[in-house]
Specification:
Length: 155
């Protein structure tokens, strides 16, 4: 971006030098308009054009200093955006990992163990309430991890 500003700076610096010459406008019999920096032979058909002087060296210097300050502020803002983006990506990755771990924990809690069934007389059995409680707890933890991930992602 800095390289793009160099031609502009050169034009701005050379502009006062090019505008110091007098400029004359003439119109011939056919209506053709001519601009020149030397007065034509027939002064009756000549119009002298006043050209405003270009910016002063002080004005150019001030402008360059403002441009440097703006460029610096822009670079700092880009750096902050990058830091925020990186931090957000880290938070998303951590939340995704928590969801994955909660899913594994739920799968592990859903597996039946030897202690999850209680045998009754007559060969019947039932699933103990503790099994359902631990599965519900693991499901709640998974739901909470998904909510945190959704909140971090912003939807």
């Amino acid at each position: 971006m800095v390289k793009k500003l160099y031609p502009l700076v050169i034009v701005v610096l050379l502009l006062p030098w090019t505008l110091t010459a007098e400029v004359y406008r003439t119109v011939d019999e056919d209506g053709n308009v001519t601009y020149t920096d030397s007065p034509p032979a027939d002064p009756k058909k000549v119009e002298k054009i006043e050209i405003q002087p270009g910016p002063s060296k002080e004005s150019i210097s001030d402008t360059m200093e403002r441009n440097r300050a703006i460029r610096k502020a822009m670079e700092e803002a880009q750096e902050k955006r990058l830091e925020k983006s990186t931090a957000r990506k880290d938070r998303v990755a951590k939340a995704e990992q928590e969801v994955e771990e909660a899913e594994k924990q739920l799968a592990a809690m859903e597996e039946f163990g030897d202690d999850d069934r209680q045998q009754l007389q007559g060969g019947k059995s039932y699933i103990r309430p503790e099994y359902f409680e631990r599965v519900k707890k693991a499901q709640r933890e998974l739901d909470e991890a998904k909510k945190r991930l959704k909140k971090i992602r912003g939807y």
